[in-house]
Design goal:
Elements: H1 22-46, H2 50-53
Length: 57
């Protein structure tokens, strides 16, 4: 007696489209992660925080 191999559900690729959708959330999340890392690197290199860079301190 043989069993069928289990296959995983493959989600279709997200297509770019206009408005509030999954693709926009994906892109916004990626830009937010990049911005956060860049901000951390900026603070590490300069020794100043974001508020100092903005002139709020």
């Amino acid at each position: 007696m043989t069993t069928k191999p289990q296959t995983e559900q493959i989600t279709p690729a997200v297509e770019p489209s206009f408005g509030w959708n999954a693709y926009a959330e994906l892109v916004n999340g990626r830009f937010a992660m990049m911005g956060f890392v860049i901000l951390l690197l900026l603070e590490l290199v300069t020794g100043q925080d974001l508020f100092t860079w903005l002139g709020l301190r």
